[in-house]
Amino acid sequence: MIRIGPAGSFGLGNLEGIGHAKELGLSAFEVEFTYGVRMSNAEAKKIGALAKELGIILSVHAPYYINLNSVDKEKIVASKKRILDSCERGANLGATHIVFHAGFYGKIDKETTYQNIKKEVFELLKTIKDKGWSVKLAPETTGKGSQFGDIDELLRLTRETGCSICVDFAHIKARNNGKIDYDEVFTKLKAVKHIHAHFSGIEFTAKGERKHKLTENSEIKELIDYVKRYKANVTIINESPDPYGDCVKTLKLI
User: Fold this and answer.
1) CA 230 to chain centre
2) 39 within a domain of the structure (yes/no)
3) Which of 130, 26, 46, 31 is nearest to 90 (CA)?
4) Residue 95 Cα distances to 64, 91, 92, angstroms
5) Distance of CA 186 to the CA centre of its chain
6) To 10 degrees, what angle do helices 73-93 and 110-131 make?
7) Within a domain: residue 214?
8) Cβ atoms of 58 and 93 closer than 8 Å
9) 218: in domain
């Protein structure tokens, strides 16, 4: 099954944005907490009820200010609070995946970074279980070489902690100088029963991701062709500057 939806409401607000997604024939929607979790649990329940009524599957993107590998322990504490606040609202929304960028390497080697983040993810998962929140913690593949989160690191993390994953195909491309081997990616994802994914056009430099841009039809078609070839069960959240428009273009190519 392929579900398509926008990242955020494009200024409409979540309630109207979800309604607009339904009008366009979309079936997913990602609530964006980009600069902070500014939503009450009561509001989350109201939004979740509408989404359920309309058959829209929700997910959440946690704030960008997260680094589970910081040398400053207070920043790790603050990062975990932002993730857990997102999980709490996500649980009240009835959301599936809580997406976040896990951290940066900084001056720490990759294996130590991995172990540091793994420790924090275990603690986050314990809190989620203790609270009874039915959400999946989904660290995202990142678009810069300075960020933790290539697909191999995250798949190892899923195996060793039981967390989920968000596969951002545009980030993979930006991280690898514009190259993505879809056969390799989908082969690595064969054990993932449902792939929560992000996609858009993307600008990049030698250091990786610069910014998201409109998604070309050729890029969409290439991804959808591979999704069909591998019979993937996937939700694709579009993060372009016009997420609704690019979602509609995607629907036409399915």
Assistant:
1) 21
2) yes
3) 31
4) 19, 6, 8
5) 17
6) 40
7) no
8) yes
9) no
Please give the Cα distance from 105 to 108 (Å, whole number): 5
Helix, strand, coil shares of the chain as percentages rounded to 5?
45, 20, 35
Quick one: tokens of 133? 């929140």
Structural domain of 164: 2-207+223-253
Give the chain's domain count: 1
Paired tokens of 221 = 């078609």
- Residue 241 lies inside a defined structural domain of this protein: yes
Q: Greatest CA separation found in the chain?
A: 48
In this structure, what CATH number is given to the domain that contains residue 25? Answer: 3.20.20.150
Residue 208: its pLDDT value, please? Answer: 85
Question: How do residues 99-110 score in pLDDT, each as one tens digit?
Answer: 999 999 999 999
Number of C-beta neighbours around residue 45 at 10 A: 15
Distance CA 234, CA 244 (A): 18
* Average pLDDT of the residues of the chain: 97
